[in-house]
Structure formats: C-alpha cells, structure tokens
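Morning!

This is the sequence you dropped in the shared folder:
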Amino acid sequence: MKLNAFFSQRALFTVAELDRFLAGRGAGNPSTRKSLLTYHRNRGRVLQVRRGLYATVPEGADPAAYPVDPYLVAAKLAADAVLAYHTALEYHGKAHSVYTKFQYFSASKSLPLKFQSNEYARVSVPRSLLAKGKEMFGVVERRQSGVEIRVTNLERTLVDALDRPDLTGSWEEIWRSLESVEFFDLDQVVEYALILDNATTAAKVGFFLESHKGTLMAEDRHLKPLRKRRPRQPHYLMRGKRKGCRWVKEWNLMIPEEILEKSWEEVL
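The structure's back. Tokens below.
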C-alpha cells in the first residue's frame, strides 16, 4: 500500500494515527503496519523519533541529516502536550536566545528524550490548575505541517516564566525576552497569576508589571490584586539564589541586584 498521501499530510505521526489511516482503507492488521513501516524506514522515507513516533522525510532527502522541527516533536511527545516556558517564548519569536532544550506541560508521565541535537523534557501541570480544571487556561492551538501544536500564550508564558525561572533561563534571558513583547493583555496576566495561587509568584508578576508600568500600561487595578496576594514575609525571587539581593518592600521580595540595576545593559 502506498502511503504518500499519508506522509504528505503529516511531518510527524504516531503509530496510532497510522493504524487509523490503514484501518480506514481496510488494512488494519498490525503486521501490515509493521511491514510498511519497516519498508519505508529502509527507503529513508520515515525516521523514528522514539517508540511509537515517527517523522516523515521528504523524497530525496538524507534521513541521517534531515532536521526534524523540534516544536513539532515536543508537541507530539504526549497527547496533551503544551509547549511552555522558554520553548513557548521561542515559538512566539520572543526569546532572547535560542536553546536546544524544549519543555512541554503534560499530565502524563514521560521520559526525557534526546533526539538529533535537542533535548526534550516534560513538566508536570501545576497542581492548582489541575484542582481548578484550568490546565488549558491561556493555551492557544496552531496547526503546522499537519501537526496540532498547543502552546501557552504570551500572557500565561510571562507568569510561568516568573513562576519557574529555573525552566526559563538566566534573569537576563527572562527580562530581555519578556521586554521584547510589545503588548500583554494584563487582565489575563493578573487572572492567571491569581489562579496559580502562589503568593511569591503574584508578587513577582506585580513587581515586573510595576517595573514596566509605562511600556505595558499597567494600572493600579492590575497591581492592587497582586499586591494583596504578596507574601507576608520577605521571599526570594528564586529559591537557592540568595546572594546579591535587595529587599523591595512594596512586594516583599528579595530581588537580585542584577535585575534592579539591569547590569547586563552595561555590557556592550
């Protein structure tokens, strides 16, 4: 059976998707699928990403050198995968730097993957979102090369980046990336920050918005609910990094001096 029509519609596919295609054409026997995959792998038409997941290779391309789109890979590593953190910033074209590590949210456990020159890691969905049924808050859907991609929008990504800076990069990377975004729906930013139900995160978001009050047009109605949620005791912007910080009373946060002074701007 020729699979050109199937391959032309999908840059990546799962075994389950291939099974459904074959079953629709009266060839649902697993042995048929196995023999077809073996045949096309030997021809260099498909490339195994991991067990149960394959990439299609254009006719005439060298499968050993063909670069598979990493965003598509991340999007297919779990049925509920959502590109997040620095990966979301890169997908939206707002990351200051290009990384070879890709992160995605998923409620299903999945082992880390190394494929071609990239690494992929699953991040568990925050418990507060699961408890409130808000896992898909601020998630947008795109279709690219026949693959459905879910990715956090810029509003949710802003909050997630500040909530988990360890998954987003250095403070310079985070600040420069977020500052490259011309517009945020601040009502949605605040709503999501409060849904996460984390006092430190609410204060971080409040501090960032207040620091960019002019460019982001942050008003007191945006800052007030975040200010009410700030921690009662001073908290560090990032756990484990306590040196070189100053207390910002307004948000009860210990802020690294490199952020307060934007020390990276001094480097020409």
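Headline: The mean pLDDT is 92.

More detail when I'm at my desk.
O.
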